Amino acid sequence: MEKYEIVIGLEIHAELCTESKLFCNCAYIFGALANDCTCPICLGMPGTLPVINRRAVEFSVRAGLAMGCEITPSSKFDRKNYFYPDLPKNYQISQYDIPLCQNGQVSFEFEGELRTVALRRIHLEEDAGKSIHAEVTGDPTRSFMDFNRAGVPLLEIVSEPELHSPEEAIAYCRAVKEILEYIEVSDCNMEEGSLRCEPNLSLRPKGSKELGTRTEIKNKNSFQELIDAMEYEVKRQARILDAGEEVVQETLLFDASTGKTVAMRGKEEADDYRYFPEPDLVHVQISDEWIEESQPTLPELPAARRKRFISDYDISPDNAEFLTNTRPLAEFFDEAARLSGEPTTCANWIMGDLTRLLNTAEIEIQDAKVTPAHLNELIQLIGDATISGKIAKSVLDDAFETGKMPKQIVSEKGLAQITDTSEIETIVLQVVEENPGPAQDYRDGTKKAIGFLVGQVMRATRGKANPQLVNEILTRVLSTD
């Protein structure tokens, strides 16, 4: 690979989370019985007419604004003509020469540097259905069609060929996914096919400005499969070029079981699709007022929020990356840090014990009973020495399970720390008397022996004694005995 430069452009298809499909009133429900989410319009029955879903257009404009695109004042839909069994009309309503959004960009961190990749376009189109083959039916002679997904609104985000490694392409995909999730236009659930990536990949001699012959890998809805497919395709094309042969422009499928790409069909050009304007839909008009109303509704985007967390809260880039992974998580931390004035402590609790609880319960932070107010109260209880850090963990566990506030849990369970020095000293003297060996070891110079004695005191007080006071009193008692 010392001889070649990798060039990758990406097409990302994101399913918009509208309540109905792009051109009809059908709701799409993942996992519904085959063909239950259909009507004559999305089944392409003769005589039916499409009606554009305004919400889908609004979501597209939001995505375009979030990615710095120019919003086209007057765009149109086109018929993309091709035959495939899962395409009920034998054409797809898409956008060709006048997309809704053009000339944007996406910035992201990669290998410690800020990278910016230009976007060629963002356009709106309808999804196709799903073919069900022998691996599901058990019959190699028959395939079935499920048209539930046909007509679902898709946002296609097309980058320029400015990515130069599979790893960089994955970082770009993650950045796009984050933006779409933050602006709440797609759930980007890759397991359910809500986000699918299609890399166009080619190799060229290092130093060359001319692009090589590209291949396209279809519909990857897993980052791991996406990177495996790209890595294999890089090696395959390098072998072809090393042998003095030419790469064939084609569309490929990636077989995860073999780890190889296989030819699906020859790569089509625009002319092959015989695009022409969709006669049943009028142009989409986007006014300046529409854009002006949409812009303020956009949230703070993940890259900007990461930068603010680092500067305002003085947390590390890695922690900022973790805490901005999803918008609900970022907003939880932001509010907890504001309430408590202890951003580092909040970050540690969120990334540690709270994440452990969320993972065990298999829920997201927005679905948890614990709120920023809970975390703030917990941090206050530790700060004023009402409870120890160890007890705080059990309090958080209880709050996560019940939704009760930490002060209520501490009061109901009697978990407040013992800070009365005379009470602690009484227990310390008893522990020293019951454990003469470790006590003498400490007096003889084995200072680590005090750890055992501290543990015995904490055990006797069920963890409620203030650990700092226990250490101080033990040290005084052992030094004077």
Give a brief rundown of this model.
Keywords: ATP-binding, Ligase, Mitochondrion, Nucleotide-binding, Protein biosynthesis. The chain has 481 residues and is α+β, with helices and mostly antiparallel strands.
Q: Top keywords for this entry?
A:
481 residues, alpha+beta, Arc Repressor Mutant, subunit A, nine-stranded mixed beta sheet, three-stranded antiparallel beta sheet, 16 strands, Asn/Gln-tRNA_Trfase_suB/E_cat, nucleotide-binding, ligase, EC 6.3.5.-, Asn/Gln_tRNA_amidoTrase-B-like
List strands and helices in order, with pairings.
Layout: E1 4-15, H1 54-66, E2 70-71, E3 74-75, E4 78-81, E5 91-94, E6 101-110, E7 113-126, E8 130-132, H2 134-137, E9 144-146, E10 153-159, H3 166-182, E11 195-205, E12 215-217, H4 223-242, E13 250-255, E14 260-266, E15 276-277, E16 284-285, H5 288-294, H6 302-313, H7 317-323, H8 327-340, H9 343-361, H10 372-383, H11 389-402, H12 406-413, H13 421-434, H14 436-443, H15 450-460, H16 467-480
Subcellular location: Mitochondrion
EC number: 6.3.5.-
Domain Asn/Gln amidotransferase: 331-478
Mean pLDDT: 91
User: Kindly, what is the distance between the CA atoms of the first and last residues, rounded to a whole number of angstroms?
Assistant: 74 Å
Q: What is the β-strand count?
A: 16
Q: Spans of 5+ residues with little confidence (pLDDT < 50)? A: none
The proportion of residues forming helix, as a percent range, comes to 40-55%
Strand percent estimate = 15-25%
**Strand arrangement across the biggest beta sheet:** 2-6-7-10-1-11-12-13-14
From the spread of the alpha carbons, the general shape counts as elongated
The helix count comes to 16
Protein name: Glutamyl-tRNA(Gln) amidotransferase subunit B, mitochondrial
Keywords: ATP-binding, Ligase, Mitochondrion, Nucleotide-binding, Protein biosynthesis
Subunit structure: Subunit of the heterotrimeric GatCAB amidotransferase (AdT) complex, composed of A, B and C subunits. Heterotrimer of A, B and C subunits.
InterPro entries: Asn/Gln-tRNA_amidoTrfase_suB/E, Asn/Gln-tRNA_Trfase_suB/E_cat, Asn/Gln_amidotransferase, Asn/Gln_tRNA_amidoTrase-B-like, GatB, GatB_C_1, GatB_Yqey_C_2, Gln-tRNA_amidoTrfase_suB_CS
